């Protein structure tokens, strides 16, 4: 049996595009002699469709698309994923389903049993978990077909009370196939490989796993579809962050063979390399799927905006990136030069708009109210918000999308101006700690200097008051980021972090800042998710809560 794995990029709710792409790859698979072509979880609708799933019309359009796909699936079989109506009186109205289609007809339906309801996942909000498990018979073989999370219950502390494969194995399947929509995090590939390998070795069956690729707003899907033999050994791994289709022959002795060169890596890519690739894909798909082509950002000469500008230019092309230099009376000459050098290195478009007169006019208008009170954060934020007004005006006039340049460290402790430097259409590095931003800058410069070295080595500063440095308000970033990671990613309490050896006063202050800044993060743009725990839909905290504040 020759099986094709189709690792594709889908667009939520774009039934015409998704259907055409699936049918096109059915034809390609058939031309290459495949007996079966396998697509990803919920490929027909795109994943995650979220509350689109609450519209009956949306589910009806999924059904129509599946029927169209079936009519084109002749002399070959395919597996597709889609939401379907649950026709039982009990339970939720929908199932997360996989159709097995052969010779123009749906021959079998498999419904997902284990519905993740943690971090970025909301599947139990929409779907009814399956309690019935049956293998699919095809070409004299039995296929144990599961959907993503159905194979993720072999961990030491299982989240569910059942394992679908424990039921399916009694039917003596010959091979396992798992279709998935598994989002990217920089440490997720190793976890994914370990869990799937455990399944193959536990049940002593070869396993073919197909994952979708592409970005859906903040969620990035990295592909990396996998093939294991019946001992749990990983024998092939599709490329990451790109579409691909590969062919595998399931032999009579239960071995898996293939003709293409193996893409297995001798060692896993470094975290920063994966983050770089993920952000490029996140930017590209956010613009393409939204129908936009041009980006704008405020370029300060600092490392954050320099990294975002370089990433945007690499993704969209420098001709589609507008960098706006917005110097204030506190901007240093070297910051302007660093920004100008970056523009030259990238070849992107640029404009310079001084904000001194604008901020002075606002301060003058507020003089009766401020009544000679000393300069403080109010005047600092006027500068940041003046910049935002100018950038958003250019967005409106010329059709740009504003790229937010705040990093995760700043977002965590609220070191940013709401409606100022925290605004934008998409937050590019909002899930990248400051120390990782430095790593990312050096990675971007791996072949030649793109980001000026001075932007990397100079002390970070918002330049909103004379001689300002980030460390005036925050701990050193190498300390701050470690505390943040323990609290945000690892969910450690202040007491646990203090026991690790961190200064008690610093820990309590940082955690208090994190909780006080929740109202700011609630109003910021979507953040491209690259870590196991990003701000946004995967981390839901009360704004007015008192815990650890």
UniProtKB/TrEMBL annotation:
ATP binds at residues 298-305, 405. The keyword Ligase applies. GO terms for molecular function: NAD+ synthase (glutamine-hydrolyzing) activity. Keywords: ATP-binding, Ligase, NAD, Nucleotide-binding. Residues 1-258 form the CN hydrolase domain. It catalyses: deamido-NAD(+) + L-glutamine + ATP + H2O = L-glutamate + AMP + diphosphate + NAD(+) + H(+). It comes from the Bacteria. InterPro entries: C-N_Hydrolase, C-N_Hydrolase_sf, Gln-dep_NAD_synthase, NAD/GMP_synthase, NAD_synthase, Nitrilase/CN_hydratase_CS, Rossmann-like_a/b/a_fold. The keyword RNA-binding does not apply. The active site is at 41 (proton acceptor), 41 (proton acceptor), 112 (for glutaminase activity), 148 (nucleophile). Pfam families: CN_hydrolase, NAD_synthase. Its EC number is 6.3.5.1. Deamido-NAD(+) binds at residues 381, 410, 520. L-glutamine binds at residues 118, 182. Pathway: Cofactor biosynthesis; NAD(+) biosynthesis; NAD(+) from deamido-NAD(+) (L-Gln route): step 1/1. Catalyzes the ATP-dependent amidation of deamido-NAD to form NAD. Uses L-glutamine as a nitrogen source. NCBIfam families: nadE (TIGR00552), PRK13981.1 (NF010588). Belongs to the NAD synthetase family. This is Glutamine-dependent NAD(+) synthetase. It comes from Mucilaginibacter sabulilitoris.
